[in-house]
């Protein structure tokens, strides 16, 4: 039996013993087992497995219906293979093979092998992520091309209207509204131009910024947009906060997205709280945005920062808002966390490093 096993092992291409495996006989009894020499994966920690029926321990492996697959290989002589995710083993990915062993064209047993392919799967996931980023970049370039020209015309027209009202010294209310519209149009222009460089490793202007001012400006604009809703806005902004080193347009986008999501999570009536402080730290500012909305299911929360993931049914939602938020926070060397409970609400916490040295005003990179 041992000589035949050795011969069949060489036939199976396992002379280097890179896989963890069991060899079983025709009755599914284990006659030999091996632990991979690389140490990346080991079979369940059961000693004295030789002599046991492998069907008694199939539940210890992550392969679905492993017992049925082994029986099929022994009864039909067909090889089976696949991949599986082992959540209990620190999130490992495994490949498995079930190869019948033949003697004189008769099935005498089978080789059941496992190999750790976690590194390979992680590489594949990184490649898929890069492909998604390339798709986003191409999409953004198209959006910029289509929007930028009419937006420039809009800004120029608003400039002319602003000059006319200023020269006459009349319609001061309209002039104020025109100024606000112009500011928002310029902001849109900056955003779409910024999107062109978002996916490239290009320098970004990083300046000392007051987060409270950014939060106040964003909240002012969103209150007007959502004025039809009965929402109570509660602000607790620490006036003594130090500045942060950041990109103004990106931080405005970050908090616009987060506050907009909080408002949209409330059907008609509710509360949105905005809080800024140093928390338990002296060198990191914490901004919390809470809502009394419908909350986020656990399965959604796990994917919420992925590009193109969205639970909104409207055509205008591309599932990029929170993805961009996570990238902006990362660019600013911060963290973003979400806590949520169904039917009670959601709290998003953004933590950003303070600017300690007044002369640190340049050199930020995306």
Tell me what you see in this structure.
The chain is α+β, with helices and mostly antiparallel strands and 366 residues long. It has three domains: 2-116, PAS domain (Beta-Lactamase), CATH 3.30.450; 118-200, Helix Hairpins, CATH 1.10.287; 204-366, Histidine kinase-like ATPase, C-terminal domain (Heat Shock Protein 90). The protein contains eight helices and twelve strands. The protein has helices at 2-11, 66-76, 118-168, 172-198, 211-225, 248-264, 298-301, 321-331; strands at 20-25, 30-34, 80-86, 92-103, 106-116, 207-209, 230-237, 244-246, 269-277, 284-291, 335-341, 345-353. A five-stranded antiparallel β-sheet has the order 2-1-5-4-3, with helices on both faces. A hairpin with a 2-residue loop joins strand 4 and strand 5. Helix 6 runs antiparallel to helix 8. It is elongated, with a radius of gyration of 30 Å. The termini are far apart.
């Amino acid at each position: 039996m041992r000589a035949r096993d050795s011969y069949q092992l060489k036939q199976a291409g396992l002379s280097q013993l890179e896989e963890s495996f069991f060899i079983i006989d025709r009755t599914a009894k284990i006659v030999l087992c091996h632990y991979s020499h690389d140490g990346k994966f080991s079979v369940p920690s059961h000693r004295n497995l030789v002599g046991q029926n492998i069907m008694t321990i199939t539940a210890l492996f992550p392969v679905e219906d492993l017992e049925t697959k082994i029986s099929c290989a022994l009864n039909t002589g067909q090889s089976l293979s696949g991949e599986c995710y082992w959540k209990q083993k620190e999130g490992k990915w495994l490949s498995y093979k079930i190869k019948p062993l033949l003697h004189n064209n008769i099935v005498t047993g089978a080789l059941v092998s496992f190999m750790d392919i976690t590194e390979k799967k992680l590489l594949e996931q990184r490649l898929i992520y890069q492909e998604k980023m390339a798709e986003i970049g191409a999409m953004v370039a198209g959006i910029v091309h289509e929007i930028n020209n009419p937006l420039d015309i809009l800004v120029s027209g608003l400039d002319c209207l602003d000059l006319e009202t200023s020269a006459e010294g009349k319609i001061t209310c309209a002039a104020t509204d025109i100024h606000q519209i112009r500011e928002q149009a310029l902001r849109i222009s900056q955003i779409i131009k910024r999107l062109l460089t978002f996916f490239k490793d290009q320098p970004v202007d990083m300046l000392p910024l007051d987060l409270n001012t950014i939060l106040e400006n964003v909240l002012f604009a969103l209150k007007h947009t959502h004025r039809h809703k009965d929402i109570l806005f509660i602000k607790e902004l620490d006036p003594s906060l130090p500045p942060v080193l950041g990109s103004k347009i990106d931080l405005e986008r970050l908090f616009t997205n987060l506050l907009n999501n909080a408002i949209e999570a409330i059907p008609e009536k509710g509360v949105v709280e905005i809080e800024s402080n140093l928390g338990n730290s002296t060198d990191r500012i914490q901004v919390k945005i809470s809502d009394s909305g419908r909350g986020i299911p656990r399965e959604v929360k796990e994917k919420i920062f992925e590009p193109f993931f969205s639970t909104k049914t409207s055509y205008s939602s591309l599932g990029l808002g929170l993805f961009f938020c996570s990238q902006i926070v990362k660019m600013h060397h911060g963290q973003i966390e979400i806590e949520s409970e169904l039917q009670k609400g959601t709290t998003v916490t953004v933590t950003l490093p303070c600017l300690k040295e007044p002369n640190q005003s340049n050199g930020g990179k995306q």
